[in-house]
């Protein structure tokens, strides 16, 4: 056996022993005390699975401006886009932005979709105590119109997956199916 071959086997052996030591240290020094699901104990479970379409989203439009009939017009526009809508109403507070999307744990993914219809310029407000999946949409003074389908798709690609709010955990897919 040549010296080059012996040196190669020696280097390979040292690398294998080093890798084995790293694996053993990583396993023995692991600080996780239980399964990953235990990390969500006591946290609010939120729906992060995007709806299959707008018909799976229920929205209630509230007029946060002084313009009369704006909530009714936006409700009709949302209905024309396939959303399930509730009767529009007036907001108790005025809103100066484009829109305020208010939702609870069951409405996170629906709110995420609605934000795309406002080109990601809406503000969101999460309430962990809400029990329904309905999304309240307070339309503000800077609102002009809903995005086109192409713009919605582009906005969704920019938004990515729904972000889990602080103090919450993503609900496993099987629990979402059981809740339906």
From TrEMBL:
Family matches, as InterPro entries: LytR/CpsA/Psr_C
Pfam families: LytR_C
Keywords for this protein: Membrane, Transmembrane, Transmembrane helix
Domain LytR/CpsA/Psr regulator C-terminal: 56-143
Chain ranges passing through the membrane: 6-27
Name of the featured protein: LytR/CpsA/Psr regulator C-terminal domain-containing protein
